[in-house]
Amino acid sequence: MERHFHHDLHTLEDRLSEMAGRAETALIKSMEAVKTRDSSLARQLFQEDQAIDKLELEIEDRCLSFLGLQQPVARDLRLVVASIRISNYLERIGDHAVNIAQSAIKLSGIPAGKPLEDLPRMAERTVAMLRDSVSAWLSGNAALAREICERDQEIDAYKAQIYATLTSAMLHEPEIVPRALEQVLVSRNLERVADLATNIAEEAIFVTEARVIKHHAEEQSSGPATRPGSSAR
Predict the structure, then answer these.
(1) Contact 31/100 with Cβ under 8 angstroms?
(2) Residue 129's closest CA among 195, 173, 82?
(3) How many angstroms separate the CA atoms of 177 and 185, rounded?
């Protein structure tokens, strides 16, 4: 029974790791499609999103079966509960990659303009946040997870800067409005991916320390989390 218990947990972590890898790859490819104006590459991501959706359903099913059959407690219970939420965050990241791919398709049909340097920088930082948040989750590194939460402010600043730059440019060059609006949408999707990466980091802290820090809960109470499995082990 003990062997099955740990085997099921490792399988769950493996599937989540695979899903995270697919979501990260989809995000990178969507930005590559924007950069290279490759509508063919962008369309490939629609099929990849279906694979990510399928993994979310599989992980949710595994988690529910594990809860019913193994009845985990403490850290193991938190891990399973958090896994359900993380798979949902990763599925939504896949959706944002598709949104960016749709912008890439539209941009490929619009005359190219002056490169917007802040956009690829924002994408690079966002992908790094996602990669590190999953690493913090898998390794149980709460210190790294807290650092990731702080990095979300940098992504917000990029989004604000891009919005200000493009808004000013559109006032002086009305002909760039279609292109600029799509670039604003891309930055908005990247900002939401960063928010979801932050959520994954918060789950890493929840599993490792039995503390809830989302919605600033840690600032409002010095005690441990009150969610299921909050008795640390």
Answers:
(1) yes
(2) 195
(3) 12
